[in-house]
Task: structure prediction
Amino acid sequence: MSKSSSSLHIAVLCGGPSQERGISLNSARSVIDHLSDSQIEVTPFYVDPHLNFYELGRAQIYSNTPSDFDFKLADTYQRLDEDGLCRRLKDFDLVFPAIHGAFGEDGSLQGLFEMADVPYAGCGVFASAAGMDKIRQKELYARAGLPAL
Result:
């Protein structure tokens, strides 16, 4: 796929190592459903519990549960390592990370995107990491003179 000026190419990443993989799939489905437009091309990517990356067909994202993905990924889709994923994501105008919990919201995935110079939606590395550590987050709020509940 090559970028063209006539449409927007968005990669949506879902899955991940946390217990919130199922929620991540639902989030990715919602994003994809809401981005259905003739001017927007969306490609889903799935991250398995072992941090292996797979580019999926759009229909595959509607499988029922993460276990539906996990048992057939290696036989159906080519696994991408981090370098392969980053090279592939450079073909997109924007990456939308829909991975919840560890790896997706703790700054790890954001750091991978930033090191590879891949544009993505959401908070950066520091804000993501601080947001996952509630004690540290309260300390940062207090230092900034903001109320922390």
